[in-house]
User: Fold VOC family protein from Nonomuraea diastatica.
Amino acid sequence: MDVCLDHLVCWVADQRRSLHFYEQVLGLPGVRTEEFRDGKAAFPSVRISAGTILDLMAYDALKGVDEHTGVKGSAGHPINHFCLSVSREDFDALQVRLKQHGVEISGTATNTFGAQGIAPEAIYFPDPDGNVLEVRYYD
Assistant:
């Protein structure tokens, strides 16, 4: 079976602020941003890869999402962190952008295991809503 991650849902307090962070600081392209700004989409997304997006869901949508999944308590359930892998060049450039935007790196790791094997370096930092991101590169 060949499985791909389709999307993740991140709970955010301010969708516009979060969209700015993911587009401008992380450099991820927005998805349905015009529809969101025009009130035609309930949430914006950013593209992580060709087949994967990150949905920026407002906390006030908790009730509707709980009903949608059919699993009581699933809406707003926290995750520890999610990890993005990038090239070494993009990894270095991201650290510069994080500093320019005043985002502090909260942790670092070396030689850690992930989906593609061992990553020489990784950094951790929060988004504007406290969701923890890990970004790493592989040789």
Remarks:
- The chain has two domains: 1-78, 80-139.
- The domain at 80-139 is CATH 3.10.180.10 (2,3-Dihydroxybiphenyl 1,2-Dioxygenase; domain 1).
